[in-house]
């Protein structure tokens, strides 16, 4: 394809790292100058950068309806704690030492880790992902010998690279739009938040706090719960960062000998309240592939983690529900290969 020629040119000109294949688009529907309209009044642009310098690309805040602002929160561009602090298992099951920027999927151990459970599906193609991989996507990690600036298997870990804008809708609360056209399969951002540990006891269920968008995701029980009322107590993990940022809620349900996390279901709020909660449930563990055995993890039904963005999170906490979505979710492993703790990443679906 043309992007293969682009990659070869970047390699031969030694400019790979300064430019990446995803900086190029050959889709005739993509218009580089097609940007979201500028506000008619400077007063409508409430924030030039909602992240206040935390993100590498500014996230603007726009409201042309009533001038109100979202509730205060602290911006966090990454999940906390990182997976390396959460996992008690070996952090990485494979590492690579590619010298070609991991452009050859056949020789990159990390790409093969992804393809081993993906069947006929494909991993990144020129740093774009065309469809979700139910078995997860494994990026090259900090222990890999490949050059980070040239690696074609490092996308999500690079963080936000597109220009997003949070804006107020007439009847759907806050939402997010991109200020530029994007190719299909482009990485947008992750769902950042604080990982909380849940403890269950036989009392009354805890109430969920309302969140900022109008979405609501129901919890799907993956095992038989004990009879009688239950109480859910959510507590932060022991390691707490000195700085907090805004986030969203995503429970990670852990089942016995089941590892892969996938998003379950969405339920639109009927009362128009600003609430959004995402649930991620377990899928069957990946079997051995390509001669490599997957790391073993033992979980009990009582173990459960939540990705909480109610008080700390990133721009994804404002993503809105749509019956015709233009994004899809992908579990991506960057700082650990423990299937309990993927990053939840958003990619364009069209």
From TrEMBL:
<dbReference type="Pfam" id="PF00856">
    <property type="entry name" value="SET"/>
</dbReference>
<dbReference type="InterPro" id="IPR046341">
    <property type="entry name" value="SET_dom_sf"/>
</dbReference>
<feature type="domain" description="SET">
    <location>
        <begin position="162"/>
        <end position="350"/>
    </location>
</feature>
<dbReference type="InterPro" id="IPR051516">
    <property type="entry name" value="SETDB_methyltransferase"/>
</dbReference>
<dbReference type="GO" id="GO:0010629">
    <property type="term" value="P:negative regulation of gene expression"/>
</dbReference>
<keyword id="KW-0949">S-adenosyl-L-methionine</keyword>
<dbReference type="GO" id="GO:0046974">
    <property type="term" value="F:histone H3K9 methyltransferase activity"/>
</dbReference>
<dbReference type="InterPro" id="IPR001214">
    <property type="entry name" value="SET_dom"/>
</dbReference>
<feature type="region of interest" description="Disordered">
    <location>
        <begin position="281"/>
        <end position="302"/>
    </location>
</feature>
<keyword id="KW-0808">Transferase</keyword>
<dbReference type="GO" id="GO:0005634">
    <property type="term" value="C:nucleus"/>
</dbReference>
<keyword id="KW-0489">Methyltransferase</keyword>
<dbReference type="GO" id="GO:0070828">
    <property type="term" value="P:heterochromatin organization"/>
</dbReference>
<dbReference type="GO" id="GO:0008270">
    <property type="term" value="F:zinc ion binding"/>
</dbReference>
<keyword id="KW-0156">Chromatin regulator</keyword>
<dbReference type="GO" id="GO:0005694">
    <property type="term" value="C:chromosome"/>
</dbReference>
<dbReference type="InterPro" id="IPR007728">
    <property type="entry name" value="Pre-SET_dom"/>
</dbReference>
<dbReference type="Pfam" id="PF05033">
    <property type="entry name" value="Pre-SET"/>
</dbReference>
<protein>
    <submittedName>
        <fullName>Histone-lysine N-methyltransferase SETDB2-like</fullName>
    </submittedName>
</protein>
<dbReference type="GO" id="GO:0032259">
    <property type="term" value="P:methylation"/>
</dbReference>
<feature type="domain" description="Pre-SET">
    <location>
        <begin position="94"/>
        <end position="159"/>
    </location>
</feature>
<keyword id="KW-0158">Chromosome</keyword>
<keyword id="KW-0539">Nucleus</keyword>
């Amino acid at each position: 394809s043309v992007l293969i020629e682009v990659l070869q040119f970047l390699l031969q000109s030694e400019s790979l790292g300064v430019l990446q294949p995803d900086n190029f688009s050959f889709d005739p529907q993509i218009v580089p100058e097609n940007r979201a309209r500028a506000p008619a009044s400077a007063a409508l642009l409430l924030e030039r950068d909602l992240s206040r310098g935390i993100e590498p690309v500014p996230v603007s805040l726009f409201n042309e309806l009533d001038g109100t602002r979202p509730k205060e929160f602290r911006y966090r561009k990454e999940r906390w704690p990182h997976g390396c602090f959460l996992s008690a298992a070996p952090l990485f099951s494979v590492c690579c030492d590619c010298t070609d920027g991991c452009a050859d999927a056949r020789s990159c151990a990390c790409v093969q880790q992804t393809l081993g459970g993906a069947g006929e599906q494909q991993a990144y193609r020129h740093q774009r992902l065309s469809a979700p991989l139910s078995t997860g996507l494994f990026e090259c990690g900090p222990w890999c010998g490949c050059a980070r600036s040239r690696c074609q298997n490092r996308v999500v870990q690079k963080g936000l690279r597109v220009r997003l804008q949070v804006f107020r809708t007439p009847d759907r609360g806050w939402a997010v739009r991109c200020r530029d056209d994007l190719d299909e399969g482009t990485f947008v951002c992750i769902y950042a938040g604080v990982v909380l540990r849940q403890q269950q006891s036989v009392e009354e269920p805890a109430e969920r706090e309302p969140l900022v968008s109008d979405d609501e995701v129901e919890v799907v029980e993956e095992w038989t719960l004990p009879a009688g009322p239950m109480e859910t107590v959510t507590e932060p993990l022991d390691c707490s960062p000195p700085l907090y940022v805004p986030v969203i809620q995503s429970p990670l349900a852990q089942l016995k000998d089941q590892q892969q996390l996938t998003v379950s279901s969405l339920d639109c709020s009927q009362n128009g309240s600003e609430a959004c909660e995402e649930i991620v449930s377990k899928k069957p563990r990946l079997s051995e592939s390509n001669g490599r055995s997957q790391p073993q993890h033992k979980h009990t039904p009582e173990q459960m983690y939540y990705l909480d963005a109610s008080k700390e999170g990133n721009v994804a906490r404002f993503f809105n529900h749509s019956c015709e979505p233009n994004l899809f979710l992908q579990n991506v492993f960057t700082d650990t290969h423990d299937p309990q703790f993927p990053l939840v990443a958003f990619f364009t679906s069209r």
